[in-house]
């Protein structure tokens, strides 16, 4: 039985686990799927090393977690792929996020229904840099004092897609044009499966707390971003070819370190899993 050989090896104190003993190029049986989901809910980000996955196998893997999320902004070049398959790469013209560092964020928080999970499969790993970093939003929330937790109760924040710049993804503080994608979600999100609460704001995308004085909102958000990004809540993944990673956008934020995009290669196949309404 495949399930009996599955081994869950935590990657850090903060979160993440490597799952050993599973070959994702073949269908995974029901018991193994359950073990994978249990590990995912406990560790928020999973790593499967030394895989050899084509598009179909990567889609089948993601379907363990939910339905595939087709890209909503339909970057024209992406239309050439299977629905839902994208590349994060500096090696292909049709790729997204080719280079530079990316601040901490939770994918698609600027939509009403943000992707539940994001998966990346490594085709080319750069020798230096390009690590993906993760932050555990549950631990960050739980570390707050009771008064702050009470202050956050019922608060909502607006996040937007307003951060594009060449060679990096940092927040742009320019005035909004009114055409940006944006959505309002609770500052403290409850995980629908585990019931655990977590901070659901991030430095890259969250703009302000609804109904709060701007200076007060800026100060509170800055405190929360800093809390999430404390080293004890973080871990990072150094990519190797054949790594399949998936993370839970309801539980973690992620960021990227820069790399030598002129001389090195970084190619990741990206598939997102549909999510539901944050509460
Ligand atoms: C993403 C993303 C980080 C990376 O695909 O959503 O943020 O390491 N990628 O490329
Ligand atoms: Mn992302």
Commentary on this structure:
It is a single chain. This protein has 279 residues and is an alpha+beta fold. The protein is 19% helix and 28% strand. It contains six helices and 18 strands. It has helices at residues 2-5, 30-43, 55-62, 137-142, 146-152, 214-228, and strands spanning 7-10, 17-20, 45-48, 86-89, 102-105, 117-124, 132-136, 156-160, 164-165, 168-169, 182-186, 188-190, 197-199, 206-209, 234-237, 244-248, 252-256, 267-273. Strands 1-2-3-16-6-18-4 form a seven-stranded mixed beta sheet, with helices on one face. A four-stranded antiparallel beta sheet has the order 5-17-7-15. A three-stranded antiparallel beta sheet has the order 11-8-14. A hairpin with a 2-residue loop joins β9 and β10. The longest helix is centred in the C-terminal third of the chain and has 15 residues, at 214-228. The radius of gyration is 18 Å and the shape is globular. Manganese (II) ion binds at residues 105, 107, 254.
Topology pattern, helix = H, strand = E: HEEHEHEEEEHHEEEEEEEHEEEE
Overall geometric form: globular
Q: Biggest β-sheet: count, sense, barrel?
A: 7 strands, mixed
> Percent range for helical residues?
10-25%
Which spans have pLDDT < 50 for at least 5 consecutive residues? none
**Oligomeric state of the chains present here:** single chain
How far apart the termini lie comes to 38 Å
Rg, nearest Å: 18 Å
């Amino acid at each position: 039985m495949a399930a009996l050989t599955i081994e869950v090896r935590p990657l850090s104190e903060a979160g993440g686990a490597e799952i050993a003993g599973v070959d994702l190029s073949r269908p995974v049986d029901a018991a193994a799927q359950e073990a994978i989901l249990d590990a995912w809910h406990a560790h928020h980000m999973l790593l499967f090393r030394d895989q050899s996955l084509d598009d179909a196998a990567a889609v089948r893997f993601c379907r363990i977690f939910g339905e595939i999320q087709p890209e909503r902004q339909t970057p024209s070049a992406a239309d050439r792929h299977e629905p839902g398959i994208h590349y994060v790469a500096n090696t292909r013209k049709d790729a997204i996020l080719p280079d530079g560092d990316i601040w901490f964020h939770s994918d698609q928080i600027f939509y009403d229904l943000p992707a539940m999970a994001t998966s990346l499969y490594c085709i080319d790993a750069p020798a230096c840099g390009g690590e993906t970093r993760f932050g555990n939003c549950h631990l960050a929330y739980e570390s707050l004092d009771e008064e702050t937790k009470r202050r956050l109760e019922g608060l909502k924040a607006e996040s937007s897609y307003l951060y594009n710049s060449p060679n990096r993804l940092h927040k742009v503080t320019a005035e909004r044009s009114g055409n940006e994608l944006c959505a309002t979600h609770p500052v403290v999100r409850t995980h629908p499966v585990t019931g655990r609460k977590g901070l659901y704001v991030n430095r890259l995308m969250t703009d302000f707390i609804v109904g709060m004085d701007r200076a007060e909102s800026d100060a509170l958000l800055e405190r929360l971003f800093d809390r999430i990004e404390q080293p004890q809540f973080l871990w990072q993944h150094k990519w190797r070819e054949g790594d399949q990673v998936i993370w839970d956008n309801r539980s973690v934020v992620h960021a990227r370190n820069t790399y030598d995009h002129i001389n090195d290669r970084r190619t990741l196949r990206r598939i997102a899993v549909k999510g539901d309404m944050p509460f």
